[in-house]
Design brief:
The chain is built from 26 helices and 14 strands. With about 575 residues, the protein is an alpha/beta fold. The protein has three domains: about 200 residues, no CATH class; about 190 residues, no CATH class; about 160 residues, no CATH class. A hairpin with a 2-residue loop joins strand 5 and strand 6.
Length: about 575
């Protein structure tokens, strides 16, 4: 097997003087990174030193192309960032005076980016089917044309997120700041591993993704601790707190190490990055001694409570953990460790948790504020608690005031709900539906205990799952096509795509697989052992469906959407 590993910068991968092309093979999956994953990479590039290593790129070099076996998501994201940078630089360029000393630098960067994305008129990154159509449409920006008509497609939305949220004026107010990020972006490093035969490529892929991993920051941190006369047993005690089924979870331990620093060891509201773990903790162990491991072990107990994997979608730590709320972990860790010093009761902790859950539910709907801004605000709050010596009711009230201030505006939440929620964040959707049911419903009682968080003993799945009233599958029946687009069946799939993931189309049921793509009437009348268990099951979520109608079309969906959106406002908007 001939393997050719080579460390390359992004500029070298998309070398402007070459005809390099990277092709996503047809057997790969479409682009799927979410906004939070993109933002994490963006922030790492922005905050780490020049030449930051972002991962591997495994390619098969047969047939004159670089077929991407591993690294598609990252390479596509980096290309999106380049295109968004071009657009932002163009905006600056239009408003710059000719004599501006940075005018030439901006113009040169725009020319380079265009050649990095395009080889002549051909895009260097060849994506799959619809992704490729959207990408080809987007790169019209490089020809001063306006891309359009693809706004509802996934790749287009991710581009808009990078362009409008990550590269906005708040983050980059001047051309110099933007050029600084561009310099870091094109100098990020990837380990490109080239294999001529596809079977060899998959052997390498399997090896890279097996348990035989290279040294991590945690391995180096362990070495630093032991070199200061640390006890191996105490390090293992820390590691064991983050094991699951006797298997290590280095990602969760790394998360604790990062959040511990943000919670206790810095006066700044900015966060520690993975690339700086080793140097930062080397300094900490030098200052505090090997006994600092005892502090870490004590704090880790609280962190495991915060980042738990309990099944409950409720107003507690378990519920918050379902909401991708990691940006709140430093604040929570600080509060729980210092609970007695802050004179906080369980009721006060629960009040803080309620505010944070409301914040993250709304944030996950509206996708604003950005994760980095949210982390900075909450880390700043943790800093203010320390500086002002807030305690008890005063501390709770100041957290409430801050969280209320940074929650997204209701109009932004409402607009986002119209666009859909299930496809953005399934766990947040489930939390909302369960919260609405528990607040308004009477189906569960002493004789019929709440089972919304229970798992089926036979298959290990949640007993209650999210049901799409209008089916989400691609094989729509003619009956559903006539309901969704009575004048033109060919448009039914488009109407379905635009509406299927909206709140007004969702409910909870223990019989999701049984109802599937059935008609609305059959879903209403679905029975098990002569008992109605379909949409006629008397839960609050089902009661909000107008079952006097023989169909459930867009008008019916809109009416239910309005009702449920108002309930979401009552339940989650912090007054």
């Amino acid at each position: 097997m001939k393997i050719t590993p080579e460390t390359k910068t992004l500029a070298a991968i998309f070398q402007t003087s070459s005809d390099n092309r990277y092709v996503i093979p047809v057997y790969q999956r479409n682009y799927s990174w979410k906004d939070d994953q993109i933002e994490t990479l963006f922030d790492d590039i922005r905050n780490e030193d020049l030449g930051y290593y972002v991962g591997n790129l495994l390619i098969n070099t047969a047939e004159g192309f670089n077929n991407v076996i591993d690294g598609q998501q990252r390479l596509t994201t980096l290309s999106i960032m380049l295109l968004a940078l071009y657009d932002k630089l163009t905006e600056f360029n239009k408003n710059m005076e000719k004599e501006d000393p940075q005018n030439d630098e901006v113009s040169e960067a725009r020319v380079d980016i265009k050649r990095q994305i395009l080889n002549g008129d051909v895009v260097r990154l060849q994506l799959l089917d619809k992704d490729q159509k959207v990408w080809t449409n987007l790169v019209k920006i490089l020809k001063n044309e306006e891309p359009g008509g693809w706004g509802r497609y996934y790749l287009y939305k991710r581009y808009k997120y990078v362009r409008n949220e990550l590269l906005n004026d708040d983050n980059f107010a001047t051309p110099a700041e933007l050029l600084g990020f561009y310099k870091k972006l094109i100098n990020i490093e990837l380990l490109q591993i080239a294999v001529p035969d596809i079977s060899d490529a998959y052997q390498v892929f399997a090896s890279l993704n097996s348990k035989g991993m290279p040294l991590t920051p945690l391995d180096l941190l362990k070495n630093i601790y032991l070199s200061r006369n640390g006890e191996l047993d105490k390090w293992n005690q820390l590691k064991e707190k983050f094991e699951k089924n006797d298997e290590e979870d280095p990602a969760k331990l790394t998360s604790f190490i990062l959040n511990n620093f943000d919670a206790f060891e810095t006066d700044s509201s900015s966060s520690l990055t993975k690339g700086k773990i080793v140097k930062t903790y080397e300094k900490l162990f030098k200052e505090k001694g090997a006994d600092y491991i005892d502090v870490l072990n004590d704090r880790a107990v609280k962190y495991v409570d915060i980042a738990n994997e309990d099944p409950e979608y409720n107003w507690n730590l378990s519920g918050l953990a379902k909401l991708d709320a990691t940006t709140a972990y430093p604040l929570l860790l600080n509060l729980l460790v210092n609970k007695e010093n802050y004179e906080l009761s369980e009721a006060q902790i629960n009040s803080i948790l309620t505010d944070l859950i409301k914040l993250f539910v709304l944030r996950n709907i509206a996708l604003t504020p950005k994760a980095s801004n949210l982390r900075s605000a909450l880390n700043g709050l943790r800093k203010s608690i320390s500086e002002n010596s807030w305690k008890s009711d005063e501390l709770v009230e100041n957290i409430h005031t801050t969280v209320k201030k940074i929650q997204p505006k209701w109009e932004a939440v409402k607009v986002a709900l119209q666009d859909g929620i299930y496809d953005k964040n399934k766990k947040t959707t489930r939390f909302i539906l369960i919260a609405l049911e528990r607040k308004n419903g009477t189906f569960f009682n002493k004789a019929n205990p709440d089972s919304l968080d229970d798992y089926d003993a036979n298959n290990g799945n949640l007993r209650w799952s999210i049901e799409h009233i209008i089916p989400q599958g691609s094989n729509l029946s003619d009956e559903w096509k006539d309901v969704l687009s009575p004048d033109d069946r060919d448009r039914a799939t488009e109407v379905q795509t635009q509406n299927v993931h909206r709140l007004g189309n969702l409910t909870l049921t223990p019989y999701n697989s049984e109802m599937g793509n059935k008609s609305f009437s059959l879903k209403k009348d679905f029975k098990v052992k002569d008992s109605l268990v379909g949409l006629s099951l008397e839960t609050y979520l089902n009661d909000s469906i107008d079952k006097t109608k023989s169909i459930f079309g867009i008008d019916e969906l809109n009416a239910r959407q309005d009702l449920l959106v108002e309930e979401v406002k009552k339940l989650f908007l912090i007054p």
